[in-house]
Amino acid sequence: MARRLRVGVLGLGEAGSEIAKDLLQAGAEVVGYDPLPEKGVLGIWRTGSEAEAAEGVDLVLSVNWARVALEVVQRVAPVLRPGQVFADLNTASPGLKRTLAAAVASTGALFADVALMSPVPGRGLKTPSLVSGPGAEAYARALVPLGARVEVVGEGPGEAATRKLLRSVFFKGMAAAVVEALEAARRLGLEGEIRANIAQSFKEADEGLVDRLVEGSLRHALRRHEEMLAAAELLRELGVEPRVAQAAAAQLRELAALPLAE
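^ thats the sequence. predicted structure below, dont judge the formating
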């Protein structure tokens, strides 16, 4: 009988706890650490420190915040050993991922840059993810048999993070635009109508939408620039700060200088 995979989960918040729970259910041996004593998962052994949770396991999952990611690596580095995989699941810049990889490399362990590509709640271990770095293949070999959805995208740390952040520019930018539009609509008593209009636009979207958005912005940049200035003025009149509208106007102003612009 094959030996059970041993995993140390650093951070037992919303994402870490769901992943830890699924690992347990899949048959892995799981230990975990979180600085907040109320956070935990039934069935896993809570350690007193990150280093204690990382010592002797096959795979370390760091599920914290980007702002503390390097501190976490520095605290566990003394116990990391060759053959272990240290996977950073935090949303961080490619530069930070490379810094983390360098710190892990000095221990002989293998670094994996993991990008979780959708919210973890409700998906847990099955959350679609991208992974890159020296430990990418080992990370996938360890977790795919347990039900994880993992795509290896390269050997360089930061390659997975780059792909996630490029998507974030679109998805978080789109979310900001929707929030801004609906807030203005609410103040005019038009929230239901505008919400339905936005939802219908999403429903009708197809594979050609990206090309139409890009080509339309290039071809009609000058006119759309003026349109977004008017939109920003409307929002100000309503007491809504036009952050997205103003940014769109600025971008269109720059695009207006390109050859395809009217």
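Residues 6-155 form a domain with the Rossmann fold fold (CATH 3.40.50.720).
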